[in-house]
Design brief:
With 430 residues, the chain is α/β, with parallel strands linked by helices. 44% of the residues lie in helices and 15% in strands. The chain is built from 18 helices and 17 strands.
Amino acid sequence: MTTIFDKYFEYTKDTEPPLVFHRWSLLTCMGAALGRQFKLPFGEFNIHPNMYIMLVGDPGTRKSTAIKIAKKVLASSGYDKFAAERTSKEKFLLDLEGVEDDDGTVLDSNAAMRNLFGSDATVGDPREVFVVADEFNEFVGSSNLEFLSLLGNLWDWDSPDAVFKQRLKTSRSVSIYQPTVSILAGNTHAGFAAAFPPDSLGQGFMSRLLLVFGESSGKKIAFPEKPSDSLRAELVEHFMEMRTHAHGEAKISSKARGMLEVIYRTFEGLDDARFKHYSTRRFTHLLKLCLIIAASRISTEIGVEDVLLASTLLSFTEHRMPQAMGEFGKAKHADVAARIISVLSESRTPLDIPALWKQVQSDLDKPEDLNKLLQGLVQGGKIQYVSRNKMNSTQGYLIVRKVLNNSSVYVDYSLLKEAQNHVTHLKAVK
């Protein structure tokens, strides 16, 4: 069966971005197209398919190309809820609250409704916006914690009264009916560090952001061919069909629910401490992705195949998220700690402190620094100390070899393909 993923990869085959950028650009656009009309009941709240995706790579990895192609396909399907390329927190809120008249002037329609019909009156249509930014920093500015905090709050916003309220610096308030925000942005390692100050790691926005790391595809196409008009028409038609059919509450099949429960219970968090807060919201990321993939099949029920693909895509993307973040937010001597784990992983026998010191002494000031690192790794459950006994002729440190948890069976390693120039990608074949 040919999927929208197959069609899109065919549509973009003669372009230079890595497939991972094309894949997540497509997924984000599908989530934005669905907007708030498609939801998954989750206790007292609902989960929607909007996503915050940031493509991260060196200059020249063609992040902008991948973003622009996906945006153009989405726009061709009739979607027009794109945010301004540059804005401020206040202007963003006003644009989200208001609607435009014929000459493009933003009108405060919600305020007008409240004046006419009372304080709780709102415009009937949910307010949706899709932030598409080749360079995220140009959209949000550098180290703008207030704006980032606002975006973080809107990622999974859901409230019984259906209205998001916030006071502006001008002392006036905005009341936004059922806001839904999607983000597809690009950034470099240097730009990432400029956009996010170190203390933003503990902020809500970072835990809601999925970092997609990509390397150059190795393709050099001087004169790209125009994509197939017929294939473009098929993609546009699929977007329109998906939005037409994916309405209301999504369901989960019993088998898919069982898979999701196991994945939730057995997930132990990412090894990198910088993603501690992301790990607490990982299940929501997974459910959002399940919604999008189910809808891409023109289905309102999340099935086993949707969970399997979503879990696979997310797992492999998470594996490279530390590369996307680079050195940002790393604790002192983090690289040394990673090297200790690597050395112990390759050793079949325990290694004592003198042996480990030989491996890392060039990067540490004194042996006491090594002792502190080893203590931290032991407390974190990464390594263990073993004493000499009948089973061990030597004493020292060993890696803690964890048995893969049950959720590993819900990652389809057959979907992992090795592309040219060491570009790892996943292809939907279901």
